[in-house]
Write a structure and sequence with these properties.
By secondary structure, the protein is an alpha/beta fold. It contains four helices and seven strands; from the N terminus they run E-H-H-E-H-E-E-E-H-E-E.
């Protein structure tokens, strides 16, 4: 089975690389020190500090493996490619939309699923809204199926 391609912006790539470096250098050392200290308490069979540190170590190693896999399968969005697609919503586009029902305007950045952060208005290209916006131009009206029904948007601008 082929591994899933992870779409990232330059910022997203740098963040993942930074997270990986932090885990490999700082967090690994911290946990190793905690394990060493816990071993100094003696008997590890009833040593909760040791168990906690070993569990954290396993979590960190799992996260490192996950990040390395994501970076191996990363496809970075080419800024020049975005320029060529001028006026069309692509991954990396900042899109301003108007809800046609209540007139409320929202702005989203379309990102790969690894970078999605709805609280920061970064929505995944795989989300219902992201999928609906992709490939459309300014002025287009799109319908998005959401759990509450269907929401209609008009694309106001694409940057």
């Amino acid at each position: 089975m082929a591994e899933k391609e992870i779409i990232l912006t330059i910022e997203g790539l740098k963040k993942l690389e930074g997270d990986l470096e932090h885990l490999k250098t700082i967090r690994r050392r911290e946990v190793a020190e905690r394990i060493k200290q816990a071993l100094e308490f003696g008997d590890i069979s009833e040593n909760s500090e040791y168990d906690d540190a070993k569990n954290e170590q396993a979590f960190i190693e799992g996260k490192i493996i996950t990040l390395e896999k994501m970076l191996r399968n990363a496809k970075v969005i080419d800024e020049d490619e975005k320029e060529k697609n001028g006026g069309i919503v692509t991954v990396g586009s900042k899109v301003k939309v108007r809800d046609l029902e209540d007139g409320e305007e929202s702005e989203y950045v379309i990102v790969g699923s690894a970078e999605a952060d709805p609280l920061a208005a970064k929505i995944s290209n795989e989300s219902p809204v992201g999928k609906a916006l992709l490939g459309n131009k300014e002025g287009a009206k799109v319908e998005v199926k959401v759990p509450a029904g269907v929401v209609s948007y008009e694309i106001i601008s694409i940057n």
